Amino acid sequence: MILKPRLEDLKIIGFYLGKIILGLAFTMVVPILAGLCFKELNPALDFLISIEISVFLGLLLLKICHTDKDLNWMQGMIVVSLSWIVAMFLGAVPLYLSGHWKSFLDACFDAMSGFATTGLVLVQDLDHMSYTHNLWRHLIMFLGGQGIVVIALSFFVRGFSGAFKMYVGEARDERILPNVVHTSRFIWLVSFVYLVLGTIALGITGIFNGMKPLNSFFHGACIFMAAFDTGGFSPQSQSILYYHSMPYEIITVIIMVLGALNFKLHYHLWMGNRKEIFRNIETSTLFVTIIITFSIVAVGLAQMGSYPSAVTLFRKGFYQLISGHTGTGFQTIYPQQFLSDWNNLALVGVTMAMALGGAVCSTTGAIKMLRIGIIFKAFKEDLKRIIVPERALVIEKFHHIKEVFLEDKLVRSALIITLAYIILYGLGALVGMFYGYPFLNALFESTSAAANVGLSCGITSISMPAALKITYIIQMWAGRLEFMSVFTILGFLIAAVKGK
Amino acid sequence: MKINLKSVLLILLISLAFYPKASVFCQNLSSSELIGNAKEYDAKLVTYAGEVIGDIMVRGEFAWVNISDGDNALGVWINASLLKEINFTGNYKNRGDKVEVTGIFHRACPEHGGDLDIHAQSLRKLGIGRIVNQRLNLDKKNLSIVLFGALILIWILTLFKHK
């Protein structure tokens, strides 16, 4: 029997949602300060309006739904999935007010793309956007990459057991430190240290490239946030092509790869356990999949004869591939060039890389390396069982921080999530094909949205149908949260209708 | 002297046939045309016009400028001395100078890591940019005041509820 949700459930969900909204409102202070520093008063006003709406809504929920009760699993999951939807709407308000988006739906699309660290954009006239709004676009990637709930856990929520339920709901099922709040804070520490180092590296490179110092460091900070959080927004419409710089490309590749690594691995590397990077199943799987997918891309590009030399083929092919594999979405080619200069084989290579993604407990989306590694190990185990005598005991292990026995429940869980992603990629492609796009183009764009990548072959534009925009928004949301909290909210809605 | 039209046409056709490949001239192409038909225009002389945006990135004797025609921005590799006339580059506070560049278009430039770019030979300024007047938007100001009032109201209401 399905139980209808009680009023108490709604109150608890509303109360914690209110807390997260207040946390989100607090982050809007950053662009307001930037607006005042850069003397951009109208953009600062956009954020003042947005912060007022957010605080109003947050306070209203806190007061109406006031409770002292803790979250249970279902409520925690629903709070997370609703938080991301509410964040999309509230985050889109300042974007829409800027006048750079044709409709509120387009602003919502970019807000979800930012929070989910996807990088697909519908923004117009980006090259004339204020520092204030540009900072917000990249900041939402930084916030979304760590997790909206992680922000709330780190700074606004103190010691309650429901914290872990929300933390898991945000697709972070690994605790780095025993306490989930400490884990959240460690994630922030790692991100801030890299933010400072990355901004300095990109800022100095920008100055050597001939950029003005202020612009150079501003771009450095924005590009770092988009690269480390594997987001893919950029302050200029040409993405990384704007900089015309190989050092810039090399630094962004390093940052993208760092962003694609597990925060738990970062922790062990910071603690001096450097061997872990070579032993870990995720890094070894990432290495293998990069080689395989790049080989496919390289063969495709060589067949096509798109680039004048092997060096340029490597530079263009490898950059788009790493950008796709890490789920970032930076481009050093124009979207149309994917269709004109890349053949189907090369496109399939990038699509595969996008579908696979980076490490779990990182800022990337998609199936992720741990699951691919586990599935491969399970396949290997089954093959061994066929080969060895029937009485022989076959035990497979893998190294992920520690030695882990390959259990059936791990394989099952990895396969379910993998299957869910494949279905999500396929559904988006079906909708794309329904609107007349060729299969491979539709699959490419759908995978890019659902795997939170952001590479585009040109489908994503203001002229695409509203239903396709909504499809991609849902894909970005479901892909970022890795289904669990999305399934919970669906179950909750069904229970609300059919429950007794 | 009487000019024979047929002879003139014949000379013109012969000279066109022997004209170097890189010198096929295309008048004012848009960025979409260039990107969409990159193979067709590859290594050909093209003319492209738009607004100078972002930074002018000087690299020794040459510089990179990004020129946007509203649809896309294209990278233009140009002798830095030709950029002396540029006063404004487009950003939030400025509209950049409008320029027209003529140069060799590359679908995948061998000199610049396979970038799609134009190696400009000449630059002509079509229009002067300007500083964009940033007046305070009164509608937004009024809306923020109304919302602030609503916030105060909800705060007062919560105080009553607590009591």
Give a summary of the structure in a few sentences:
By secondary structure, chain A is mainly α.
Q: What ranges of chain B have pLDDT less than 50 throughout 5 or more consecutive residues? A: 16-22
Most residues in contact, chain pair and counts: A-B, 49 and 48 residues
* H/E series of chain B: HEHHEEEEEEEH
End-to-end span of chain A in angstroms? 8 Å
CATH homologous superfamily placement of the largest domain in chain B? Nucleic acid-binding proteins
Can you give a write-up of this model?
- The complex is a heterodimer of chains A (500) and B (163).
- By secondary structure, chain A is mainly α.
- Chain A has two domains: 1-173 and 466-500, no CATH class; 177-464, no CATH class.
- Chain A has helices spanning 7-27, 29-37, 41-64, 73-97, 104-115, 131-146, 148-156, 162-169, 180-208, 213-228, 246-259, 263-270, 276-279, 281-304, 310-325, 335-340, 344-356, 369-387, 408-434, 439-450, 466-481, 484-498; strands spanning 397-400, 402-405.
- Chain A has a two-stranded antiparallel sheet.
- In chain A, α9 packs across α10.
- Chain B contains four helices and eight strands, in the order αβααβββββββα.
- Chain B has helices spanning 5-17, 31-36, 38-41, 138-162, and strands at residues 25-29, 45-59, 62-68, 73-79, 94-95, 98-106, 117-127, 130-131.
- In chain B, the strands form two sheets. Chain B has a five-stranded mixed beta barrel. A two-stranded antiparallel ribbon of chain B has the order 5-8.
- In chain B, a hairpin with a 2-residue loop joins β2 (45-59) and β3.
- Chain B is elongated.
- Residues 16-22 of chain B have low confidence and may be disordered.
- Classes of the chains: A mainly alpha (500), B alpha+beta (163).
- At the A-B interface, α3, α15 and α16 of A face β2, β3, β4 and α4 of B.
